[in-house]
């Protein structure tokens, strides 16, 4: 005979396993719904080769961002050197003022 008068307390272990099941289901269900969608594939346009560029002076090929990156680094080095020189000059002036 079952006792249905009082609700049974749920232990922490049961609650954590239930929470884990809910989390796993939440993650698994959207991915299965997305894979079963009835969307059709889009047709791709044929690939055309880029137009031939005029022959120029041979040199090392550079990526488009490489030049910008080198410029940024060079300007950063210049600013850093200027800051260091200014600090050095200020220290020397303070040292002269103390004497």
Query: What's the number of helices?
Result: 2
Give a short account of the largest sheet: none
Helix content: 55-70%
Q: How many strands in all?
A: 0
- Percent of residues in beta strands: under 5%
The shape is: flat
The parts where pLDDT drops under 50 for at least 5 residues are none
Order of helices and strands: HH
Structural class: mainly alpha
Average pLDDT confidence is 78
Summed up:
This protein has 99 residues and is an all-alpha fold. Helices cover 60% and strands 0% of the residues.
Note down, in words, how this protein is organized.
The chain has about 100 residues and is an all-alpha fold. It has a domain at about 65-99. About 60% of the residues lie in helices and about 0% in strands. The chain contains 2 helices and no strands. The longest helix is centred in the last third of the chain and has 35 residues, at about 65-99. It is flat and about 95 Å long. The mean pLDDT is about 80.
List keywords for this structure.
99 residues; flat
How is this fold's topology laid out?
Layout lengths: L11 H24 L28 H35 L1
């Amino acid at each position: 005979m079952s006792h249905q008068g009082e609700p049974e307390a749920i232990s922490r272990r049961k609650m954590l396993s239930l929470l884990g099941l809910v989390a796993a289901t939440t993650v698994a269900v959207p991915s299965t719904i997305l894979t079963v969608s009835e969307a059709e594939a889009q047709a791709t346009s044929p690939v055309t080769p880029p137009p031939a560029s005029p022959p120029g002076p041979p040199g090392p090929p550079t990526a488009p961002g490489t030049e910008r990156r080198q410029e940024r680094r060079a300007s950063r080095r210049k600013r850093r050197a200027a800051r260091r020189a200014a600090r050095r000059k200020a220290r020397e002036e303070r040292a002269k003022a103390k004497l």
